[in-house]
Amino acid sequence: MKKYNITVNGTSYEVEVEEINEAGTTEVKSSVQTQTNSKPAPKKVVEKAVKKETPKAPVAESVSSGGTTVEAPMPGVILDIKVNVGDEVQAGDVILILEAMKMENEITAPASGKVSAIHASKGNNVGSGDVLISLN
């Protein structure tokens, strides 16, 4: 039986390996013990590029005073729109489904009102803060 010390990513392992017997079979037995090296392995430094978002230009809308807009809370894809222009909605009603990061998110009406405009359509990619629906 031979003993070897192997270091992988700063962790030292003591390994015992049994030699091949005279019959030529390749029977190998091993046992592993872990020892923590006194000095840690050097850490890989990964630099991430930081994307600075440019401010979005205000969206021109024909929402009368007292109107409410529903904005995308995150970037994603519109899977379904549950309302039509002219529909009355109550606060908390599901008005559309937004897929983001493989999750279906129900977007609800923030206030009661009448749907005055729909600014997105099924299958559209939207960004965070994009206006989706206008309520009056």
Q: Could you please describe the fold and organization of this structure?
A:
The chain has strands spanning 2-8, 11-17, 30-36, 68-71, 76-81, 88-89, 94-100, 103-108, 113-118, 125-126, 131-135. A hairpin with a 2-residue loop joins strand 7 and strand 8. Mean pLDDT is 77; it is low at 48-64. The protein is mostly beta strands and 136 residues long. It folds into two domains: 2-36, no CATH class; 68-135, OB fold (Dihydrolipoamide Acetyltransferase, E2P) (Beta Barrel). Strands 4-11-9-6 form a four-stranded antiparallel β-sheet, with no helix packed on it. The protein has no helices and eleven strands.
Task: Please describe the topology of this protein.
Elements (H helix, E strand, L loop, with lengths): L1 E7 L2 E7 L12 E7 L31 E4 L4 E6 L6 E2 L4 E7 L2 E6 L4 E6 L6 E2 L4 E5 L1
Antiparallel strand pairs: 1-2, 2-3, 4-11, 5-7, 5-10, 6-9, 7-8, 9-11
User: Helix amount, in percent?
Assistant: under 10%
The CATH superfamily of the largest domain is identified as RNA polymerase II/Efflux pump adaptor protein, barrel-sandwich hybrid domain
Distance between the termini: 82 Å
Average of per-residue pLDDT values: 77
CATH architect. name of the largest domain? Beta Barrel
| Shape estimate | rod-shaped
Number of self-contained structural domains: 2
Q: What is the CATH first-level class name of the largest domain?
A: Mainly Beta
Enumerate the strands of the largest sheet in spatial order, edge to edge or round the barrel.
Answer: 4-11-9-6
Derived structural class:
mainly beta
| Biggest beta sheet attributes | 4 strands, antiparallel
Number of strands: 11
Strand content is 35-45%
Taking pLDDT < 50 over at least 5 consecutive residues as the criterion, the unreliable ranges are 48-64
Number of helices: 0
